[in-house]
Amino acid sequence: MESGFTSKDTYLSHFNPRDYLEKYYSFGSRHSAENQVLRFLLKNLFNIFSVGGIKGDLLIDIGSGPTIYQFLSACESFKKIIATDYVDQNLQELEKWLKKEPGAFDWSPIVSYVCELEGNRMKGQEKEEKLRKTIKQVLKCDVTQSQPLGAVSLPPADCLLSTLCLHAACPDLSAYCTALRNLSGLLKPGGYLVIMDALKSSYYVVGEQRFSSLSLGQEAIEAAVREAGYTIKQFEVISQSYSPTTANNEGIFFLVGQKLSSSA
User: Fold this and answer.
1) Three-state DSSP class for residue 157
2) Which residues of the chain have pLDDT under 50?
């Protein structure tokens, strides 16, 4: 199906993590739109965690996919990181990198870039080893469930991070609001919610497969986050979009919210 919402089953049967990594995270010298977006994500993650001072004991990443770029600055600010995803093959790809298995994706160009942002305090290999030690678990997650991590019991997190996930997981605005409320139960009062995603994008492409994305503008996103019990500390948009053959977004946004102390 070209149109309509991409189901969970379609992700399990058709999402190819290697195609996704090669398309969006081959961080070479070429000045592709994908590279430009990735630089924006890395710079903002650095600003949020290293400069902005969001830190604590536990960070839970929602919808990690097969990627580790989103943890590279966070591992300097949190003692423990939990990676999660719905798609089994993404979790397997993550484990492959964590265990240094043959054929694991080479993140070293991206790691080097983040090390530069951080003033080259450590070399790339040191950074990778630090991150491997900080990621304590890789868990299955379903944001549509009232308990997204199922029966797994974790202490309330200091920060929830979600990059390029929620808009793909939700068919409509109501589901998006519900997912945000479901996730709120994983976060301690006063904890931070950090979301980065494509703005007003209805699809993205991996290999030959097209996947749906919930097309939302800034006002709808902010309203949903507030309704889920957060104050919005920061909302920024850049106009950089992916290649037209990759996605039809109108920029990338990042949001920092803080959970209200009175919310459940």
Assistant:
1) strand
2) 1-2, 263-264
Residue 30 has a CB neighbour count (10 Å cut-off) of: 8
pLDDT tens digits for 25-50?
Answer: 998 766 799 999 999 999 999 999 99
Which residue in 31, 34, 26 sits closest to 240, CA to CA? 34
In order of 96, 101, 102, 194, 260, the CA distances from 45 in angstroms are 24, 27, 29, 9, 22
Interacting residues of 199 by C-beta distance below 8 A, sequence separation 6+: 216, 217, 218, 237, 249, 250, 251, 252, 253
Q: Could you give the residue ranges of the DSSP H alpha helices within the chain?
A: 8-14, 17-25, 33-46, 88-98, 108-117, 124-134, 166-169, 173-184, 218-227
**CA–CA gap between residue 152 and residue 72 (Å, rounded):** 25
**111-131 residue pLDDT tens:** 999 999 999 999 999 999 999
